[in-house]
Write a structure and sequence with these properties.
This protein is an all-beta fold and 153 residues long. It has one domain. Helix content is 0%, strand content 41%. The protein has strands spanning 2-6, 27-36, 39-44, 53-61, 68-75, 88-96, 107-108, 114-115, 130-135, 138-143. Strands 4, 5, 6, 7 and 8 form a five-stranded antiparallel beta sheet that branches. Strands 1-2-3 form a three-stranded antiparallel beta sheet, with no helix packed on it. β9 and β10 (138-143) form a beta hairpin. It is globular.
Length: 153
């Protein structure tokens, strides 16, 4: 699992915008790769062309059920209800029961969105503070979340 740019209409070279620009046609997607009889194959877990981004993926495989469970940060999804798309993010979860061939629709885990573009925001909200573990069909995700929007660090 990793985050990388996804192919998008009009995204043919560096002058077409960047992922820092919320209006850009470039999008980051979480990609999944696996090795099988035909060799390596990879594809994004979300083929939607809407302007949103996915990043900081964490993957877990339940050794009991074989299920793959993925948690990641996502912006601009219909779940975020963000008036400024791609600026607020939620922690989302997807599962796969067929070794990553197909993924479920995302489930929103967070109760509050993080918007690092807001005035006074702390730019340390993202990073290695996202994790997933589990056993025998029970899964536990952990992440940081803003609990008081007015709190200044």
């Amino acid at each position: 699992m990793w985050a990388d740019l996804a192919e998008a209409t009009g995204c043919t070279n560096a002058s077409n915008g960047s992922v820092i620009d919320a209006a850009s046609s470039r999008m980051t997607r979480v990609w999944f790769a696996k090795y099988g009889p035909a060799g390596w194959s990879s594809k994004p877990i979300n083929l939607d062309q809407s302007l949103n981004d996915e990043f900081h993926p964490r993957l877990f495989q339940d050794s009991y059920t074989g299920s793959l469970i993925l948690v990641y940060c996502g912006s601009g999804t219909t779940m975020t209800n963000d008036p400024t798309p791609r600026l607020s993010t939620d922690v989302l979860m997807k599962t796969s029961e067929d070794q990553g061939e197909n993924w479920s629709k995302p489930t929103k885990l967070t109760t509050l969105q993080t918007n690092e573009a807001a005035a006074g925001a702390n730019n340390f909200q993202y990073g290695d503070y996202l994790g997933i573990t589990g056993q025998n069909g029970f899964y536990f995700a952990a992440w940081t979340e803003v609990i008081c929007p007015d709190l200044k660090y």
